[in-house]
Design goal:
8 helices, Dihydrofolate Reductase, subunit A, two-stranded antiparallel sheet, about 325 residues, binds 1,4-dihydronicotinamide adenine dinucleotide, 9-stranded mixed beta sheet, binds ligand LIKH6CAM, alpha/beta
Length: about 325
């Protein structure tokens, strides 16, 4: 079945702007050299009214309506990278590409104009988006595609050439993933498959720690190490989509300061008990009392179809 076109109203794009990183660095002429600066981090996901991401571990669950889905794809057009944990890669077989409707710019529009491509479609004349670029070899318009990043320390994801993200990369409709792992020698066949499509394994040697709610044989990378590895690839912004473990660890007291922006789609539904929930580890103070883990500030609320999109920044904890 053909996918419906995803289009975001220009007013919604304008209201998102204060919550977004500068335009993606794969725009022609931009400096994408590695740097010690961390990337801009956007935490974004869709949740139910009972704070659930999916009906259960391993279950792909649609929460976003068409309009908020278009918003998520607009975010994908505005970040250099898109990140999920291996639990999500296995459960969802995700595409992790941008499928916003794109159309050719008017003849008089220059390739570097702010209104080119998707920007023209969205009517974004007054803001700098540049999420579409002109392919200089054949003059076609291509929407900016984010680089998928999968965190898979033990290489649990048995991807093949038929995995959705690989098929999209082969078709030129997305990018092949970079897989962050602790396995020093990944299997040659997987390595070749990735390399043929422009993806790769990123092997992290840094010591891993035991995270909260994590089994004793399952170590975790420090998020600062993950983000440094991403930035080392010249990727200046990353949207982190999930799943449950990834979101809960990022929202924890020790990591939430790494988040620059939070954009949450709230769907008017309850998924119920047994779901995968967003609920970070509790803060227990030195005297044994508890306090909120994190709170948003600089809020924007935006209805999109039947969903509500909530944007904000993590408030400082002092
Ligand atoms: N509604 C939404 O927006 C989204 C929903 N989901 C749903 O979430 C569910 C998957 O969530 P989870 O099972 O919690 O899996 P997950 O996607 O959070 O992956 C967890 C795994 O990622 C790896 N990992 C994560 N952080 C790591 C770190 N710091 N260092 C090393 N390894 C790390 C570990 O192997 C861990 O077992 C699925 O049902 C999926 O459909 C996923 C993304 C978005
Ligand atoms: N924004 C949003 N709304 C939902 O209802 C979702 N289930 C998700 N899931 C995330 O999107 C990924 C799927 O991406 P593709 O459509 O296959 O490109 C999935 O893996 C989750 O990260 N997101």
């Amino acid at each position: 079945m053909a996918e419906q076109s995803l289009v975001l109203p220009s007013i919604a794009a304008m209201r998102l702007e204060p919550h977004l990183p500068p335009s993606p660095s794969t725009s022609p002429g931009k400096d994408i050299s590695p740097s010690s600066e961390p990337p801009f981090v956007t935490l974004t996901f869709a949740t139910s009214l009972d704070s659930a991401l999916s009906l259960g571990p391993g279950m792909r669950t649609t929460l976003s309506g068409l309009r908020s889905k278009a918003m998520t794809h607009y975010l994908r057009s505005r970040h250099d990278a898109i990140c999920v944990g291996v639990g999500t890669a296995i459960a969802d077989d995700p595409g992790l590409n941008c499928r916003l409707a794109a159309e050719a710019p008017p003849l008089e529009t220059s390739p570097t104009s702010d209104t080119a491509g998707v920007g023209a479609l969205l009517g974004l004349a007054s803001i700098s988006t540049k999420q579409s670029v002109i392919d200089e070899t054949n003059g076609t318009v291509t929407t900016h595609q984010p680089r998928p990043i999968v965190i898979d320390p033990k290489l649990r994801w048995d991807f093949t050439s038929e995995s959705k993200v690989m098929k999209l990369a082969r078709a030129g409709k997305g990018l092949a993933p970079y897989i962050i792992t602790a396995v020093p020698n990944p299997p040659e066949d997987k390595k070749e498959l990735l390399q043929d499509l422009g993806g790769k394994f990123i092997i992290l040697n840094e010591p891993q720690s035991f995270g909260p709610n994590v089994g004793s044989d399952n170590r975790r990378f420090d998020w600062r190490t993950i983000l440094a590895a991403v930035r080392n690839e010249g990727l200046q912004s990353i949207m982190i989509e999930g799943g449950g473990e990834v979101i809960n660890s990022l929202l924890s007291q020790e990591n939430s300061h790494l988040i620059d922006s939070v954009i949450i789609t709230i769907a008017p539904t309850w998924l119920g008990q047994g779901s995968v929930f967003v609920s970070p580890p509790r803060n227990v103070n030195a005297n044994g009392s508890s306090s909120a883990v994190a709170r948003l500030t600089n809020i924007t609320y935006m209805p999109l179809g039947e969903d509500l999109v909530l944007c904000g920044n993590i408030a400082s904890q002092d």
